Automatic annotation (TrEMBL):
Transmembrane segments: none annotated. This is UDP-N-acetylglucosamine 1-carboxyvinyltransferase. One of its GO terms (molecular function) is UDP-N-acetylglucosamine 1-carboxyvinyltransferase activity. GO terms for biological process: cell division; cell wall organization; peptidoglycan biosynthetic process; regulation of cell shape; UDP-N-acetylgalactosamine biosynthetic process. It comes from Alkalibacter rhizosphaerae. The active site is at 117 (proton donor).
Length: 418
């Protein structure tokens, strides 16, 4: 089992290059199944979840050629399988995108119920509602999802809750439906727009991605194309927070600053300095930091995937602040790990109250999920003494070469493999 040993107290300084967006890549990879041709994806992050999804497609009969760690060519011309019951499929939350892609291509799909991080109940009822509205029959029995349609017919679909997964999944199916599908109360996240742009490049007809109403006019044929994945908003935000927490000075390259506005706004409110360039951001940590109140919201609000790292930063700030988690109901499990370090955090339901100006002491921490893992690493960077972080499998799912990037920024961090 791998673990990280971190010596705290060293400001991060230098430059870091952000990888392609994990959440976009996990929507783009299954989308290649819709093209009866060759797709070339560039700027894919070299992380476990992405590599696992690529392996799943290979087992389904997609011809996969890796040009390098970040560029992969997919040829789905001869794919005939719509059933994928491999164990790897069951381990991935994003495997549910296979439902939309395979329904669109074959009008049939058989896959296991998806897994992923345990951060609360994440039902796929909105996905199923969308598929059924398009004319599919969806059954869940013994942990297996089976969906079938004689044909998919465009219709009006209103999502009861804003769901990134349901928005992308319904788009994947609807692009090959007959007629027009109008998806209301759609998610507006950058990776929703990225998937829509990719589908359009393959020949789909999607309008309105990035707004809460998306119109999809079905097409009969979709062709291969070349596409570059957008930068990872969450990885960028993680390094922004790490720079502020360590009182560092970091230039974060290969980003889209507009995607980071909610994070930048909170860091500036806390007292950090942020300088924006065309495709990079410079974050300069300042003393003293001031506590703030944060509520996680769908994009363009503050992202739920960054509330855990922000909790560490708020432990450094003066005064008391709150984090209200409005997306997931079970996303404060990491708080117990921070309390072990001396943090003063009280959780009441979906609200965490954080008393700042606490000195964190290095100890052994467990990464309870992907984003909590990033928070544990940042906690180690600011803590007195040494911190050991275990359960790195979660971090490796979503962060490319995290310890190497931190080393280049001056962190004292080493991975020990056993």
């Amino acid at each position: 089992m791998d673990r990280l040993i971190i010596e705290g107290g060293h400001p991060l300084r230098g430059e870091v290059v952000i990888a392609g967006a994990k959440n976009a890549a996990l929507g783009l990879i299954p989308a290649v199944l819709l093209a009866e041709g060759v797709c070339r994806l560039e700027n894919l992050p070299n992380i476990k979840d992405v590599n696992r999804f690529i392996n799943i497609l290979s087992k389904m009969g997609v011809k996969v050629e890796r040009e390098n760690n970040h560029t992969v060519v997919f040829d789905s011309t001869t794919v005939e399988h719509y059933e994928m019951l491999d164990d790897e499929t069951q381990k991935m939350r994003a495997s549910y995108y296979l439902i939309g892609a395979l329904l669109g291509r074959f009008k049939n799909v058989v896959i296991p119920f998806p897994g992923g991080c345990n951060i609360g109940v994440r039902p796929i009822d909105q996905h199923i509602k969308g598929f059924e509205a398009l004319g599919a029959k969806v059954d869940l029995e013994h942990g297996i999802i089976r969906a079938h349609a004689e044909e998919l017919i465009g219709t009006n679909i209103y999502l009861d809750v804003v769901s990134v997964g349901a928005t992308i999944n319904i788009m994947l199916a609807a692009v090959r439906a007959k007629g027009v599908t109008t998806l209301e109360n759609a998610a507006k996240e950058p990776h929703v727009v990225d998937v829509a742009n990719f589908l359009n490049l393959m020949g789909a007809n999607i309008k309105g991605a990035g707004t809460d109403v998306i119109k999809i006019t079905g097409v009969d044929i979709m062709e291969g194309c070349e596409y570059m994945v957008i930068p990872d908003q969450i990885e960028a935000g993680t390094y922004m927070i790490a720079a502020a927490a360590t009182k560092g000075d970091v230039l974060i390259k290969n980003v889209i600053p507009k995607h980071l506005e909610s994070i930048s706004a909170k860091l500036v409110e806390m007292g950090a300095e942020i300088i924006e360039y065309d495709d990079s951001l410079r974050v300069i940590g300042k003393e003293p930091l001031k506590s703030v109140n944060i509520k996680t919201l769908p994009y363009p609000g503050f992202p739920t995937d960054l509330q855990q790292p922000m909790a560490v930063l708020m432990c450094m700030a003066e005064g008391s602040g709150t984090i209200t988690e409005s997306i997931f109901e079970n996303r404060f499990k990491y708080v117990d790990e921070l309390i072990k370090m001396g943090a003063e955090i009280l959780v009441n339901g979906r609200v965490a109250m954080i008393n700042g100006r606490k000195t964190l002491s290095g100890t052994t921490l467990s990464a309870t999920d992907l984003r909590a893992g990033a928070a544990m690493v940042i906690a180690g960077l600011v803590a007195d003494g040494k911190t050991e972080v275990t359960e790195l499998k979660h971090i490796d799912r979503g962060y490319e070469d995290m310890e190497d990037k931190l080393l280049q920024l001056g962190a004292k961090i080493v991975r020990i493999s056993e």
